[in-house]
Amino acid sequence: xxxxxxxxxxxxxxxxxxxxxxxxxxxxxxxxxxxxxxxxxxxxxxxxxxxxxxxxxxxxxxxxxxxxxxxxxxxxxxxxxxxxxxxxxxxxxxxxxxxxxxxxxxxxxxxxxxxxxxxxxxxxxxxxxxxxxxxxxxxxxxxxxxxxxxxxxxxxxxxxxxxxxxxxxxxxxxxxxxxxxxxxxxxxxxxxxxxxxxxxxxxxxxxxxxxxxxxxxxxxxxxxxxxxxxxxxxxxxxxxxxxxxxxxxxxxxxxxxxxxxxxxxxxxxxxxxxxxx
Length: 277
What we know:
- This protein is mostly helical.
- It has one domain.
- It has 11 helices and no strands.
- Helix 1 crosses helix 10, helix 3 runs antiparallel to helix 6 (140-160) and helix 4 (86-107) packs antiparallel against helix 10.
């Protein structure tokens, strides 16, 4: 029970960190305090700096997949949050994260049950509800960018399930990912404010760098289905935080679409009869 309790505590802190990333990004990017390129670069550089003392082995090609996935996630995440609200962004992000993890399981031979197929339809309907004209969306492009970020984060999560030094591996990923997002600075048109730099730094050093170390420590202890389920708490925490700290409304449309997405993904995790639990 001690090991299970520690895993639960680590997972809880990781989920809070994930939700914090959405809140910090939206707070920084929504009012123009900083642009997407600078936010991405500072976020990754801050994470690399705080983790540098525990980097362990020298970065190698083995770290390249994790670093590339991290860079794509951060870039798409920052660009999407120029327009998306924190809550809807987190919903789209983690819907695509779970879809990626479920697809990986399917490739490995894990079959969807009948409830699983129904869940897939339900979750798709929830996304349609959020993306349909007249909702909280401001266009298809931000949603597509967040979807790309979600797929990249799903890949990063799968890569992180390999055993080894989670802290050192995360540090090397941040170090290698930082130069990959630097070309984004070319498209920034202004100088970031101190407020924007501070939020990007907090996101990189605390809710990203340290948060991802926690997640990398948790994921090898959990099955794919459990990993997918645990992350479903993130959009809920992000929505509540956005309402409390960013004055984002908790609309009926957001609630219905979010419930459909989360409920649908839960159904996809129901194993067919005869499969091991």
